[in-house]
């Protein structure tokens, strides 16, 4: 049984702005999200094991998710000086990944078989081996929620977590599927 109060404390201690329980039954994988990945606006499509098509089909991702019933959503929210404040966006993303790695390490002690799904592509290795060699750290690699086909705003709404905090804010969201 998941102790959400304990997980919320762990998440707060790890530095996240917001933590919420996640019902895995609320996770929908949408082809249109994958189509956004294929547009390759981030420049990572087909370049990493953690990004499509390397992370598998939607059916592959669905099969992984269906092994879990519960998890948690975590967010790091940053305050921007203005809508073009790229520096704070990058700082907030770096902070979110730092928090994500810290939380993952803590959670693996209790949930060794959890599925960690992040924000942005995997950055465990400076250079990914995709597609020439297998992933160096398959148990430590992570895909983004979008790579799995999740519409983050929808997942947040379905689990009573705010996604939009107003103008001049940015929110990075990840999840850990625990049991």
Automatic annotation (TrEMBL):
Top-level division of the source organism's lineage: Bacteria
Xref: Pfam families: DUF2284 (PF10050)
InterPro entries membership: DUF2284_metal-binding
Protein name according to UniProt: DUF2284 domain-containing protein
